[in-house]
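Allow me, if you will, to draw on your knowledge of protein folds for a short while. I have a record of one protein: its chain in single-letter code and its fold written as discrete structure tokens. Could you please explain, in whatever detail you think fit, how the structure tokens follow from the sequence? The record follows directly beneath this note:
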Amino acid sequence: MLEHELREVRRSREVNKNSAPTVAEFPEPAELLNQLKARRKKSGANLADMEVVLEILGTDRSEI
């Protein structure tokens, strides 16, 4: 009985480990700004804004 339960726990742990989110990779600030300008020509964002956005996205949500 306990062996069966242990196997189930290990199997479930492996599934959870495989489905865990990975670290996101973001483009460079200049590339992100170029993408934004391509989609929204009149955007008032600048390179410093993109750096801040990437910094916010890269922080742990508990810090915000």
Q: What stands out?
A: The chain has a mean pLDDT of 81. The longest helix spans residues 2-19. The helical segments are 2-19, 29-39, 47-58. The two ends are 45 Å apart (CA to CA).
